[in-house]
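cron nightly-structures :: item 1 of 1
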Amino acid sequence: VQLQASGGGLVQAGGSLRLSCAASGDIFSINLMDWYRQAPGKQPELVAGITSGGTTNYVESVKGRFTISRDDAKNTVYLQMNSLKPEDTGVYYCVADTVAGTHLWGQGTLVTVSS
């Protein structure tokens, strides 16, 4: 499985961005897709996840502002981020959990929110 994330950039506080993560390869082995972020000097944290059945979960700090979704026809997972705050700044990674139990990370995309 290969993961290609895109959509990061610089945005002012209160703005919006949509991240995309395109999966290729053995996509049928994926049963969960997550978005993690890593702020400068901090450990990565789970931001949102979506199962193959469409069940979603979010870290408390983004509930009501971020929405994770998937388009199976395009093998793509999205993270719509609204009402962005400076503390949302970080490198965002898409991560695939496979039925074999592996945890595959894509390359990150940088999100910078200015105050």
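cron nightly-structures :: done
The mean pLDDT is 95.
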